[in-house]
Amino acid sequence: MTTLVLSKDCPTDATLSYEDGRPAYIVESNGKLMRKTTVISRADGEELAKLRWRALHEHEVEIGGNEMKLSGLMPKKSTFSSDRIFKNSSGEEFRWKMRSSKVQCTSVASDSDIATYHSSCMGIIGKKHPAYIDIADQGLKDQDLVVITCLIMAALQQDQTNASAAAMSSASSNVAAISS
């Protein structure tokens, strides 16, 4: 198993390092909320993927010079599901599933764990730790693709969490205003 630790609790703007501290990937974002671009590179500077996040249109991904919609790289399992499927270069299918504090990737054929993204923990409940990705030995042959798709899923999960928190805050404000 390989563990990559994120320097920040932000899957779109962090350095991912091995447990010994060696950098493995650099993730940088620029732009505004409605039109943000994220670049994922190896630590040596080789660009692996470019993500164009769109508020009103489908997100776009560029890998190896091939541009596609996010649904082309990682289609949803079903219309109302947050799970997404992707294939490696051999055609093997993998499924990313969103869970409360993690995002998990499994092999569709064997249902074995391939990788798990763990959100950071402040230590209030459970042990304090930064965000990190565990990649099982079976996933190492596709490590770059696993990391790219993992960071996409983690960013989507973070956006969902932020949107839910904003909606709850807005609802609380509305209730307080009505009560006054």
What is this entry, summarized?
The protein has 180 residues and is of the alpha+beta class.
Tell me the CATH topology: Porin
Rounded to an integer, what's the Rg over CA atoms?
17 Å
For the biggest β-sheet, the strand order reads: 7-6-5-4-3-2-1-12-11-10-9-8
What characteristic shape results from the CA principal axes? globular
The total count of helices amounts to 2
What is the CATH level 1 assignment?
A: Mainly Beta
Average the pLDDT over all residues and give the rounded result.
87
Query: Roughly how many Å apart are the termini?
Result: 56 Å
- Under the CATH scheme, the architecture is Beta Barrel
Question: Can you characterise this structure?
Answer:
This protein has two helices and twelve strands; from the N terminus they run βββββββαβββββα. By secondary structure, it is an alpha+beta fold. The chain has one domain: Porin (Beta Barrel). A twelve-stranded antiparallel beta sheet has the order 7-6-5-4-3-2-1-12-11-10-9-8. Strand 3 and strand 4 form a beta hairpin. About 3% of the residues have low confidence.
Layout of helices and strands, plus pairs?
Elements: E1 2-6, E2 14-18, E3 23-32, E4 35-42, E5 47-54, E6 60-63, E7 66-69, H1 70-73, E8 84-87, E9 93-98, E10 102-107, E11 113-118, E12 132-135, H2 143-179
Antiparallel strand pairs: 1-2, 1-12, 2-3, 3-4, 4-5, 5-6, 6-7, 8-9, 9-10, 10-11, 11-12
